[in-house]
Amino acid sequence: MNRFQPFWFDEAMTTEGRELRAPLTKSIHADVCIVGGGYTGLWTAIKLRQKSSDLDIVIIEKDLCGQGASGRNGGCMLTFSSKFRSLEAHFGLTEAIRLVKASENAVLAIHEFCLRHGIDAEVRPHGAVYTATNNAQQAVLQQPLTALKQQQLNHWTELNAADLVALTGSTRHLAGIFSPHGGTVHPGKLVRGLAQVAQNMGIRIFEHTEMENFSSTGTVQINTPKGRINAKKLILATNAWTPRLIPQFNRAVVLVSSDMLITDEQVDTLQHQWFTKGTAVADSRLFVHYYRNSQSGRIMLGKGGNYFSYANRMLPLFDQPSRFESMLNTAFKSFFPHVDSKMSRSWTGASDRSVSGLPFFGHLPQQNNVLYGFGYSGNGVVQSFLGGEFLSSMVLGLDDEWTRSGMAQGVKHFFPPEPLCTLGARLIRHSVLRIENREETDLRPFWFDKKLASLAVSAGKVDK
User: Contact 240/69 with Cβ under 8 angstroms?
Assistant: First the structure.
């Protein structure tokens, strides 16, 4: 089998030991066709089967299930709690409270689902830590908690120095807050396991089957290179590829790289540093550093907000070793100066960043039988589980908390057209980097950099 660049997906495929699923080579009929065999598509299919056992469901995936973002992300399970203010601003207080609670419950639900169905996805619901690595970050670290406390939703606690080192494995952090609602997962093993569970449920999956186009007069006709699907409903679960498929969504998101590297196995080193729990760790930068250990004794570190793709083009660099590997190595050494380990691999992936930093779900205009969900903004492991709830209820036409949610009303905000979008994004990125570099040495940021950076606050994992 060929080696895949993203480490997690490559390791999952190496250990899977199953034959690949065949492509579609004929015309078929289905009640629901899902395009995209990642987390969103698979969770939606599974939840559809759970809610309506007699549906005929088909999934088509242009590569292998999980070969996109689902098999190459950091595997950090983070909830909506740190985005409570954004949720309230866009969807109102009641729905913000519901979504925070749903996302926190989803962490354990994913764990329980894997246990129940025998998915060895290395799910470790050991919590999440947000940290401050300089005085500027320390001053704003606990700001998101105020609104949570007012609604009696706050599960974050301030860490003392010893617990901070124990949970993060690093002495670089000046302060940190911990929530038990979070953790880590092997993203490749999770997505491949979900595909197998879906198939065991009677859901037909065709890999190496790309949707060329579709039409939706009455039923939906989905054309592929060697076959055709006639379906009552179509779900586009294509995330970063959605703007290419549906040009009207080209301004709904911007594609920006998230870049990662991972060390060789070093169990003894992790045990020496106490860094053995499966906690997700992130600092308080806007373009965040995030890291975690693996069950096999590796440390993975990533950083978002690196390369902005002009006009949302899916470039080859999104499937290659990271061009920011030197920057990642420098960051790694700052967190783990005494870890002497060879880097096993670096990789990159396209993150579909929305204006709000939150996902959205909806129907195409005048095409209620064509649904979509994307815009996870680099925070999709838990949120895609909820995406399955949104899309499955919408397909079935249910009147419930998912279909009534403001998050299920489609795209509401758009980025400027090109070339303004990419030009602006790159200017803002440089301002953010200058701010963060000055803050590391306790220097005040320049006024104009602060003004530009304020346009991108929704991109962060934590509201500020």
Answer: yes
Helix-strand-coil percent breakdown of the chain, rounded to 5? 40, 20, 40
3-class SS of residue 78 = coil
Residue 187, both tokens? 């993203």
CA 97, distance to chain mean position in Å, is 21
Identify the CA nearest to 429 among candidates 294, 280, 279, 254. Answer: 254
pLDDT in tens, 363-406: 999 899 999 999 999 999 999 999 999 999 999 999 999 999 99
Q: Which helix (H) or strand (E) holds 157?
A: strand 157-158
Query: What pTM value is reported for the model?
Result: 0.96
Checking 141-149 for CB contacts under 8 A at 24+ apart, the result is: 141/175, 141/176, 141/177, 141/284, 142/177, 143/463, 143/464, 144/81, 144/82, 144/83, 144/84, 144/85, 144/462, 144/463, 144/464, 145/177, 147/84, 147/85, 147/88, 148/81, 148/84, 148/100
How would you classify the pairing of strands 280-282 and 220-223? unpaired
| Residue range 25-41, pLDDT digits in tens | 999 999 999 999 999 99
